[in-house]
Specification:
This protein is 18% helix and 18% strand. It is α+β, with helices and mostly antiparallel strands. The chain has 2 domains: 55 residues, no CATH class; 87 residues, 4-Layer Sandwich (Aldehyde Ferredoxin Oxidoreductase,  A, domain 1), CATH 3.60.9. A 3-stranded antiparallel β-sheet has the order 5-6-7, with no helix packed on it. β3 and β4 form a beta hairpin. The radius of gyration is 22 Å and the shape is elongated.
C-alpha cells in the first residue's frame, strides 16, 4: 500500500525491509534504460510535478505483425505516404500495383469488425488485408492505433 497524497509516495518499512523499491522517484530517470538501449534516452522526455512525459516529436516508428505489410509489398508498394486531407471519408484501395481512394462515408463511425467485413464484401474478396483506425482515429484521438487484421496494432510510439 502507498502512503501520502497522489503525487508523493513512500514505502512501508516492511516493504523496504523486504527489498521493495520504486522504479521512478518522481524526479529523475536515474537507473532507467530505453528499449534496446543501455541507458535512458537523453532527449524526448521531461519530468515535471512527479510525472514523466514524452515530448512532442517529429517522427517515430511502430511495428505490428500480420499480413498487411507483406501484402502491401506484393502489391508493388514499399511504403504509403499520404499528404493532405480528404474532404469526405475515404479508404485507400491498393491492388495489383494500383492505388485509388474509395468513398467510405457508409463506413464512418462503425466499429472495426463491421468495417472490416463491409470492405471485404464490397470488394468481393475475403482475403483482403485491411488496416484501419476506427472511430477513435476518425475523431482524431491522439493515441488512436492503426489496427490490421482486427488484431495487430501499430501504436503511437510515444508521439503526440
Amino acid at each position: 500500500m502507498l502512503d501520502g497524497p497522489a503525487h508523493t509516495y513512500s514505502l512501508k518499512l516492511i516493504q523496504a525491509n523486504d527489498g521493495y523499491k520504486f522504479l521512478f522517484d518522481g524526479k529523475t530517470t536515474n537507473g532507467w534504460r530505453g528499449a534496446k538501449l543501455d541507458d535512458f534516452p537523453k532527449h524526448g522526455w521531461v519530468v515535471k510535478d512527479g510525472v514523466l512525459t514524452v515530448l512532442e516529436s517529429g517522427g517515430g516508428e511502430s511495428e505490428a505483425g500480420g499480413w498487411f505489410g507483406p501484402e502491401l509489398k506484393f502489391a508493388g508498394f514499399d511504403a504509403i505516404i499520404i499528404k493532405g486531407r480528404a474532404e469526405n471519408p475515404v479508404y485507400l484501395w491498393i491492388h495489383d500495383g494500383k492505388a485509388e481512394f474509395k468513398d467510405a462515408a457508409h463506413l464512418w463511425g462503425k466499429p472495426l469488425g463491421e468495417v472490416h467485413d463491409a470492405i471485404r464484401e464490397e470488394l468481393g474478396d475475403s482475403k483482403i488485408r485491411i488496416a484501419q483506425t476506427g472511430p477513435s482515429g476518425e475523431k482524431m484521438v491522439r493515441y488512436a492505433c492503426v489496427i490490421n487484421e482486427l488484431k495487430h496494432a501499430n501504436g503511437r510510439s510515444g508521439m503526440f
